[in-house]
Amino acid sequence: MTTVVVTEQPGARQMLIGSVQGHRDWDSGLFSCFSDCKSLLMTYFCLPCAICNISTRAGECMCMAWCVTGGLIALRARIRTLGGIQGSICNDCMAMSFCGMCGICQMQRELEAMGL
Questions:
Q1: Using CA atoms, how far apart are residues 33 and 98, in angstroms rounded to an integer?
Q2: Is residue 11 part of a domain?
Q3: What pTM was estimated for this model as a whole?
Q4: Structural domain contains residue 52
Protein backbone atom coordinates (compact mmCIF):
# COMPACT_ATOMS: atom_id res chain seq x y z
CA MET A 1 0.00 0.00 0.00
CA THR A 2 1.31 3.46 -1.00
CA THR A 3 0.75 6.61 1.04
CA VAL A 4 0.28 9.88 -0.89
CA VAL A 5 1.01 13.12 0.95
CA VAL A 6 -0.68 16.20 -0.53
CA THR A 7 1.50 19.27 0.02
CA GLU A 8 -0.46 21.61 -2.22
CA GLN A 9 -4.16 21.88 -2.80
CA PRO A 10 -5.03 20.45 -6.23
CA GLY A 11 -6.28 23.07 -8.64
CA ALA A 12 -5.00 25.99 -6.55
CA ARG A 13 -3.99 28.92 -8.72
CA GLN A 14 -2.38 32.29 -8.31
CA MET A 15 -4.71 35.20 -9.02
CA LEU A 16 -2.23 38.10 -9.01
CA ILE A 17 -1.23 38.80 -12.60
CA GLY A 18 1.24 41.62 -12.14
CA SER A 19 2.70 43.96 -9.61
CA VAL A 20 0.23 45.95 -7.54
CA GLN A 21 2.31 49.07 -8.17
CA GLY A 22 2.53 48.67 -11.94
CA HIS A 23 5.70 48.43 -13.95
CA ARG A 24 5.61 51.50 -16.19
CA ASP A 25 4.51 55.11 -16.53
CA TRP A 26 1.73 56.48 -18.70
CA ASP A 27 2.65 56.50 -22.39
CA SER A 28 2.21 60.28 -22.49
CA GLY A 29 1.93 62.97 -19.86
CA LEU A 30 -1.27 64.42 -18.46
CA PHE A 31 -0.74 67.72 -20.28
CA SER A 32 0.29 66.25 -23.64
CA CYS A 33 -3.13 67.00 -25.11
CA PHE A 34 -1.76 68.71 -28.22
CA SER A 35 0.27 65.64 -29.20
CA ASP A 36 -2.96 63.99 -30.36
CA CYS A 37 -5.35 66.47 -31.95
CA LYS A 38 -8.00 63.80 -32.65
CA SER A 39 -8.55 62.98 -28.96
CA LEU A 40 -8.27 66.66 -28.03
CA LEU A 41 -10.97 67.72 -30.49
CA MET A 42 -13.23 64.80 -29.62
CA THR A 43 -12.95 65.59 -25.91
CA TYR A 44 -13.45 69.33 -26.37
CA PHE A 45 -16.36 69.24 -28.79
CA CYS A 46 -18.15 66.03 -27.72
CA LEU A 47 -17.19 65.10 -24.17
CA PRO A 48 -20.00 62.51 -23.75
CA CYS A 49 -18.87 60.76 -26.96
CA ALA A 50 -15.25 60.67 -25.74
CA ILE A 51 -16.21 59.21 -22.36
CA CYS A 52 -18.49 56.56 -23.89
CA ASN A 53 -15.71 55.65 -26.34
CA ILE A 54 -13.17 55.22 -23.52
CA SER A 55 -15.62 53.13 -21.49
CA THR A 56 -16.31 50.65 -24.27
CA ARG A 57 -12.64 50.39 -25.27
CA ALA A 58 -11.77 49.61 -21.62
CA GLY A 59 -14.36 46.81 -21.57
CA GLU A 60 -17.02 48.59 -19.54
CA CYS A 61 -20.60 49.58 -20.33
CA MET A 62 -20.59 52.82 -22.31
CA CYS A 63 -22.82 54.49 -19.71
CA MET A 64 -20.69 53.42 -16.74
CA ALA A 65 -19.03 56.80 -16.24
CA TRP A 66 -22.43 58.50 -16.21
CA CYS A 67 -24.28 55.99 -14.02
CA VAL A 68 -21.63 55.19 -11.39
CA THR A 69 -20.54 57.73 -8.79
CA GLY A 70 -16.83 58.36 -9.36
CA GLY A 71 -17.04 56.50 -12.65
CA LEU A 72 -14.27 58.46 -14.37
CA ILE A 73 -11.89 57.75 -11.49
CA ALA A 74 -12.79 54.06 -11.64
CA LEU A 75 -12.30 54.08 -15.42
CA ARG A 76 -8.87 55.65 -15.07
CA ALA A 77 -7.92 53.06 -12.43
CA ARG A 78 -9.11 50.28 -14.76
CA ILE A 79 -6.93 51.57 -17.59
CA ARG A 80 -3.96 51.76 -15.22
CA THR A 81 -4.57 48.18 -14.13
CA LEU A 82 -4.97 46.89 -17.70
CA GLY A 83 -1.76 48.60 -18.79
CA GLY A 84 0.35 47.91 -15.70
CA ILE A 85 0.74 51.66 -15.16
CA GLN A 86 2.14 53.01 -11.91
CA GLY A 87 -0.10 55.26 -9.87
CA SER A 88 -2.72 55.38 -7.15
CA ILE A 89 -6.41 56.04 -6.67
CA CYS A 90 -5.45 59.34 -5.04
CA ASN A 91 -3.52 60.42 -8.15
CA ASP A 92 -6.42 59.33 -10.35
CA CYS A 93 -8.83 61.34 -8.22
CA MET A 94 -6.64 64.45 -8.39
CA ALA A 95 -6.14 64.18 -12.15
CA MET A 96 -9.86 63.77 -12.85
CA SER A 97 -10.95 66.42 -10.33
CA PHE A 98 -8.57 69.20 -11.31
CA CYS A 99 -7.62 68.37 -14.91
CA GLY A 100 -10.55 66.26 -16.06
CA MET A 101 -10.42 67.00 -19.78
CA CYS A 102 -6.65 66.47 -19.88
CA GLY A 103 -7.14 63.18 -18.00
CA ILE A 104 -9.74 62.05 -20.53
CA CYS A 105 -7.39 62.88 -23.42
CA GLN A 106 -4.60 60.97 -21.65
CA MET A 107 -6.82 57.92 -21.25
CA GLN A 108 -7.68 58.00 -24.96
CA ARG A 109 -4.00 58.22 -25.93
CA GLU A 110 -3.13 55.39 -23.54
CA LEU A 111 -5.81 53.08 -24.94
CA GLU A 112 -4.50 53.85 -28.43
CA ALA A 113 -0.93 53.03 -27.35
CA MET A 114 -2.16 49.78 -25.76
CA GLY A 115 -3.89 48.80 -28.99
CA LEU A 116 -7.40 48.92 -27.53
A1: 15
A2: no
A3: 0.78
A4: yes
